[in-house]
Amino acid sequence: MATIELTTENFESHVKDDDILFVDFWASWCGPCQQFAPTYEAASESHPDVTFGSVNTEEQQELASAAGISSIPTLMAFREGILVFAQPGALPPAGLDQLIGAVKGLDMNDVRAQVAAQAEQPGDARG
């Protein structure tokens, strides 16, 4: 599966509808982004069961801002609509494959329980 372009118009629907979604936030002037692009594209072709999207931060400044992007490239991974990974920096091919495997292997019942537990905690429990 080829990498799809994500925009403010389609980002939320992909997060919600795609079982596993990886998102690469990049810009054309960013050297590390350009170096990571072939690795990301190759992974998208090797994992047809995963959706790979990219956000051009120059064209989608509002989306990049809403996602809290402060450094590029930044890679995010969503599973069943939950953000399960977000980290700036380009990964080598083996690192990206390892991350993809880890996201595929997540116990989503456990992840949802952790998200629910965090949501129930008060803002500052130190008293």
UniProtKB/TrEMBL annotation:
Pfam families: Thioredoxin (PF00085). Residues 1-105 form the Thioredoxin domain. One of its GO terms (molecular function) is protein-disulfide reductase activity. Keywords: Disulfide bond. The keyword Disulfide bond applies. Gene3D superfamilies: Glutaredoxin (3.40.30.10). InterPro entries: Thioredoxin-like_sf, Thioredoxin_CS, Thioredoxin_domain. GO terms for cellular component: cytosol. PROSITE patterns: THIOREDOXIN_1 (PS00194), THIOREDOXIN_2 (PS51352). It comes from the Bacteria. PANTHER family: GEO12009P1, THIOREDOXIN 2. This is Thioredoxin 1.
